[in-house]
Amino acid sequence: MDSVWLIFLSPAIGSALSLILSPIKKRRIIEAIAVISSLISVFTSAELFFLRAPLLNSPAFIQMLSGPIAPVLMVDKLSALMSFVVALVSFLIVVYSIGYMGEDPSYIRYYSLIQLFIAGMLGLVLSGSFLYLYLFWEVVGLCSCLLIAHWYEKPEASRAGVKAFIVTRFGDVMLLTAISLIYLQVGDLRYDVVSLHLGSLPSSFISMTMLLSLGGAFGKSAQVPLHVWLPDAMEGPTSVSALIHAATMVKAGVYLVARLVTLSLEYGSVDIVALSGFSQVLLWIGSITAFLAATMALVTYDIKRVLAYSTISQLGYMFAGLGAFSSVPFSEAIFSSMLHLTSHAFFKALLFMGAGAVIHATGTRDMREMGGLRRSMPITSTAFLLGAIALSGIPPMNGFFSKDAIMEVVMSASPFIYTLLLITAVLTPFYIFRAVLMTFFGEQKRHAHEASISMTLPMIILAASCFITPSITSFMLENNPLAGFSVDITTALFSISAVLLSLVLFYLSYWRGLRLELAFARKILEKGYYFDDLYIRVLMPVFRTVMSGISWGVDRVLDALSYRIADQANRFGNFLREIHTGMISHYVAAFSLGLIILLAMALGVMLT
Amino acid sequence: MMLLVYTLMSAVLVAVGIFGLASRGNAAKILISIELLSSGAVGLVFFPMLAISRSFVFSQSLMILFLSVDGVTLGITIAVLLMAVKRSETGDMNKLNELRG
Amino acid sequence: MIEVVSTISIFIIFSIVVFFMGKFKAGKLSLALVSMIPYAYSYMILPMLWFGMVSSKEKLFTGDFLGIKGFFAVDPFSLFYSGVTALAANMLILHIISRFGDREIAPIVSSALFTTGAVLGTLFSHNILAIFMFWEMTLAGVVGLSLCPCGGYRKQTHEAMMKMVVMTSISSAFLIAGIGLLIASISGPNFDLPSLNLLSVWEKIPEAKNVQLLVMSFVLIAVALLTDAGAVPFYMWLPDYVSGIVAPPVALMLVTSDLAAYYLLGRFMTIFSHLFQTVKLTQLAIITLIATIGIFSIVLGELSALSQGRVRRLFGYSMVSDAGYSLLLIILYNVNGVFLFGDNAYMAMPYAYFTAASSIAIAVIMAILGSFEDIGVFRLQQLQGMHIRLPFSTILLSISLLSMAGIPPLAGFVAKYLLIFSLVATNMPIFLVAAFIASLFFVVCAAYSFRLIKISFSPREDVSRLEERKSDLIPLAILVLTLILAGITPTPFLWTFGR
């Protein structure tokens, strides 16, 4: 068996093993299993990444058994990159969990679900057929929802888990529709077969299918309007947030879009004009989401929510970058998006880990209760600061290079979108440094101590890797480790000026007390532009009314009908039983009646 | 001709037998009616057979066969009716109508 | 045909042997062994006959006996029924011996053996007179069977027996009349015994001069056989019989004389089929009449069963409706001008399958209801909580009920499916209407079957587990297993038809 299968099978086996070995109540063993299984993924994906994938010119398909529904993996540059990044970040988070979840009593459930999630995510990126893509998509969604509700005794946590599941469900249904349409038209779900046929399908069909699958991508990646689940998902453990909602699962949507673009444009021969609507939607939704999420991050006091909104916003960047494929060569669009994806995976995981360490130490998520933690948690604060610098897009961190790549392709696509993203780039440093200020500077309000080594070590590793992630990406995608560091002068200048503007505003607000009277805006932002209210106050009652109307109709009409019929049948049966009197002479009388009828018929026949 | 008349006579016998069974009466009446019925049936075998094949041997042997089967049936019927009469105290078979509905 | 003769005579001989064994107070085990011998012999003979049929590709074997040519005949239709009868009767006898072993059971075992032998005689006879004789033998055997006290009589046994005997005597009389008229109409100056074979009757019918006599004979034979099968309006004795007798003879009767009655219906009523094809008005009249009888039987049977409170009587009415469904198939064959014999026997497949499946299912149900009655369960409401008291019996009961309801993968589903399929495949409006009505009443059948299952599995507090002897249930389990197997893979069972 090819070692590629081990990439996602190893955590799957680890997950099952954790469950099987659960009667042994030894925490260390379960933790060891998780660490070993994710380490195996790292090694095998690294083997794939460093040794095999660079040699590929066209995608390799690895299949077990045969037939259209056999398990098949597709290995190309995109999937090799994604699997390596996912495996690496997952491993670091598993190590982090040892410290973060060190006292949690339900660790077996946690580790087994985490490993199942890792297996699902790796399977998703490696899958070579839409069937398995969807299968792993669902696995990942399920594990996410279950892990969000890990502390299900808290009602907010279980509610958040359910909300995540249902909101992503909308997206999943659209994705399923798209896959079914593909199956109906092409007859097979394997990537190679589909990309062969895609060129010959009518363009309206292609654009409709793509747009439908976008629904799935937006659900998983929390773009407007399906973004409402991600901030609430912060109720889960921070390591879960780091893994799922920063580094991996939310990237699945981006991966899906990238995969679709490669299938149609690179391996298939689809006309780019057919995909123009698709790219427009990507650009607009991506940039609008980026902007709105950044604004929402400005007013929240929960440290994890800041990071959640930030994730949504950065994902918007990635989608916008992808959406530029109709204006620039698609490989550039994909490259920019992937560059930002890898950078974001690392620094966002880093930021979440830092936040988790802070929460673990102080016991609260509210930044107003924290302060001055840089003295008691030096490693954490340094790491967090480095992550903040990366997020803001300040050189020489990776965020600068990746954002610049996206801005570069977006500018060729649409200047308006570029401006929107630029404004967002002003907001980004503002909200993140606000978080840094409130958490790590000022007076210490709560007692805290530095996090344990299992938590700080991954942070250090991530912080260090943040300097080199552009080369990882460009090594894979462009065969040139240094290509990731190239910048376009124009956009770089604009980006750096945006950052400087933001820092100036920041300084003015917090050191000089410059206050903009935007109290009205604050209410809107705090309510998340009323999206949640829309869903809960408007859509849900409508839905409930419709459903109760239908059930009333079923109750009154259909059920009553069937009861009536059954009742009549019973009554008629009782009536028929009256005929059966029990007296033998009546029996013979009935017999003779039948006899006479038959004889009459015979006579009738005889006379004709 | 005569054979047609005899055939009709047998049919009448059958009808009388049925009528006797269909009307109220006691076990003896039932027995007699069954016997009439069977005899009429045998008559319905014999006479048309004779009319068409004109072979005395065959029709007579058939008739004797059926009559003997009738006798056996009668024996069983008598046995069962005796048991039923004991059950019903009176001889009226119609009183036994517990199994109904 | 030495095999057929030997099989029948072995059964009869052994019935006498068992009777004497009863006189000498033989034990349970010896009775079981001795009663197994004829069945084991038939299990050897019947497959031998089948293999002979398959290998020689000839669908009809005839044999001589006592100098009469063509006394016995074996074709796939009778072979199928004989296999079903042998297996089911064997299992039921084992069940009875196991259940009542400490009481006087030699009479019932010997009657059962006798009846099985007589049924085999009916199935395998070719000569009309021979069929008639063996049929009367079967009826006599059933009477003897029903009068055996299996652990005491029920209160209404004599009443039920009286009704059955009276109605059966009437039907025998009409059968005599009908056969007589049939023979009369086809006979000519050169008439001898071999011309009474089914095949020659079939050939002679179109040449008969007197069509009126033929129609009359059809009517009389139909009346007689329909009384025995239980169609409206001749059915009235059947529910009484089924609820009045103790349960085991009813089960045995179902798999012996009821199957023989269906067999006779299949042969005798289709023997006229090419007559009805030639005279168009007759065909329409026949179809309409028998279809009406069939539909009335279905309606009356199912609806009376639905509202019935006594469980045994419910199944009596279910047998009535089964007769109705089978009648629908009979007119199908009449319309197509098919005589279900010899090479055409494969067309009898849906008919045979349907009757066999329903008979086995109801027989198993009857046997289990018998053991329920030992603990006083007679009515529907008293079935509540049976799964606590007699779990294995309830499970077997439920599987048989599911087969009756027509749930895959049981035999009942295949049977009902074949029924509807054959009716619809003709594309004639009257059959489509009949198929529609039949499937409508399948729902009713499913309704009361499910109701029974539901009530037996309802909870109840004041009952506890009772003892069930495994040896009672194993024969029934084997029959249920054949139901399941016949449902999952019907093709081996249908291979007996050589197709």
Helices and strands in order:
The complex is a heterotrimer of chains A (608), B (101) and C (499).
Chain A: H1 3-20, H2 27-52, E1 60-63, E2 72-75, H3 77-100, H4 107-126, H5 130-148, H6 155-186, H7 191-198, H8 203-220, H9 229-232, H10 238-247, H11 249-267, H12 276-297, H13 303-323, H14 330-362, H15 373-376, H16 378-392, H17 398-413, H18 415-440, H19 453-465, H20 469-477, H21 489-511, H22 519-526, H23 531-578, H24 584-607
Antiparallel strand pairs in A: 1-2
Chain B: H1 2-22, H2 27-53, H3 56-88
Helix pairs in contact in B: 1-2, 2-3
Chain C: H1 2-23, H2 28-56, E1 61-65, E2 68-74, H3 76-100, H4 106-124, H5 128-146, H6 157-186, H7 198-204, H8 211-229, H9 237-244, H10 247-270, H11 273-278, H12 280-306, H13 311-336, H14 349-374, H15 386-389, H16 391-405, H17 411-424, H18 429-456, H19 470-488, H20 490-495
Helix pairs in contact in C: 1-2, 1-4, 2-3, 3-4, 3-10, 3-14, 3-19, 4-5, 4-10, 5-6, 5-10, 6-8, 6-9, 8-10, 9-13, 10-13, 10-14, 12-13, 12-18, 13-14, 13-18, 14-16, 14-17, 14-19, 16-18, 16-19, 17-18, 17-19
Walk me through the structure:
The complex is a heterotrimer of chains A (608), B (101) and C (499). Chain A has 608 residues and is mostly helical. Chain A contains 24 helices and two strands. Chain A has three domains: 228 residues, no CATH class; 256 residues, no CATH class; 73 residues, no CATH class. A two-stranded antiparallel ribbon of chain A has the order 1-2. In chain A, strand 1 and strand 2 form a beta hairpin. The longest helix of chain A is centred in the last third of the chain and has 48 residues. Chain A starts with a helix and ends with a helix. Chain B has one domain: Helix Hairpins (Orthogonal Bundle), CATH 1.10.287. Chain B has three helices and no strands. The radius of gyration of chain B is 17 Å and the shape is elongated. The mean pLDDT of chain B is 84. Chain C contains 20 helices and two strands. A two-stranded antiparallel ribbon of chain C has the order 1-2. In chain C, helix 1 packs antiparallel against helix 2 and helix 3 packs parallel to helix 14. Chains in contact: A-B, A-C, B-C. At the B-C interface, helix 1, helix 2 and helix 3 of B face helix 5, helix 6 and helix 9 of C.
